[in-house]
Design goal:
Layout lengths: L7 E6 L2 H12 L4 E3 L6 E5 L10 E7 L12 E6 L3 H8 L5 E8 L5 E6 L5 E6 L2
Parallel strand pairs: 1-4, 5-8
Antiparallel strand pairs: 1-5, 2-3, 3-4, 6-7, 7-8
Length: 128
């Protein structure tokens, strides 16, 4: 299991090409196309699949979504878990909300999307 506090991040954008140009200019990074699990989602990873170690992330464009709204946050950080349903099971008792229960993300494992007690969106990620 990943031993970093955060294992993945997503920065949501309304124009992925504009965002790629911005981050490439500011950080000097290249982006790599990622296959998405939904036709309405375009993803570009900050690291190539061969170089994804510890923490990596992606720019994400959701067709028709406006960033910084209830339906589309601006950023999501994902916390690694052994089985994200365990941590998900504690979210509501701690004052949070489950947005999307544990779901498969194909060969990349599983994730849950939640909102913390302060209204921040975060994700839980596990391989089982």
């Amino acid at each position: 299991m990943n031993t970093s506090v955060i294992c993945w991040f997503e920065i949501y954008t309304e124009d992925i090409e504009r965002a790629k140009k911005f981050y490439s200019s500011v950080l000097g990074v290249e982006f790599y196309h990622m296959p998405a699990i939904d036709d309405d989602v375009i993803m570009a990873a900050f690291s190539s699949p061969e170089n994804m170690q510890d923490v990596s992330g992606a720019l994400v464009q959701v067709k028709g979504a406006s960033v910084n709204t209830k339906s589309c946050p601006s950023t999501i950080v994902y916390f690694p878990c052994i089985n994200c349903s365990e941590e998900e099971g504690r979210v509501e008792k701690a004052g949070g909300k489950i947005v999307t229960s544990k779901m498969s993300i194909g060969e990349h494992g599983f994730c849950s999307i939640c909102i913390d007690s302060e209204g921040n969106t975060f994700g839980l990620h596990s391989m089982e």
